[in-house]
TrEMBL record:
Pfam families: ATP-synt_F. It comes from Aerococcus sanguinicola. Belongs to the V-ATPase F subunit family. GO terms for molecular function: proton-transporting ATPase activity, rotational mechanism. The keyword Transport applies. This is ATP synthase. Keywords: Ion transport, Transport. The keyword Ion transport applies.
Length: 102
């Protein structure tokens, strides 16, 4: 399975591309949904990495896929500034899904 990056940070996207991972730079809110839908429909992708600001702005759409589809796995791709302020996203996702705090 392949990996894909949807990022609002050019540096993060460039780093992933250097590692051989395809992706797209999304700088406007209207550009997220078409790119996200295209990746979700492509069954070759097993992991989709999305930057925190894009996840926050599109939380409902992303949660619908996270909680109703086995693949792809959607994970947060933190940039240099995001890493410093990040909370435990795995615990947050579990809390949203089943209501248990870890």
């Amino acid at each position: 399975m392949k990996q894909y990056v949807i990022s609002d940070n050019l540096d993060s996207l460039t780093g992933m591309r250097l590692a051989g991972i395809d992706g797209v730079l999304v700088q406007e809110a209207k550009d997220f949904r078409p790119n996200f839908d295209a990746v979700i429909k492509d069954k070759d992708y097993g992991i989709v990495m999305i930057s925190p600001a894009l996840i926050e702005a599109n939380q409902e759409i992303i949660d619908e896929v996270r909680f109703n589809q086995a693949t792809p796995l959607i994970v947060e791709l933190q940039g240099p500034k995001d890493f410093q302020t990040a909370e435990n996203q795995i615990a947050k996702t579990i809390r949203q899904a089943i209501g248990i705090s870890i």
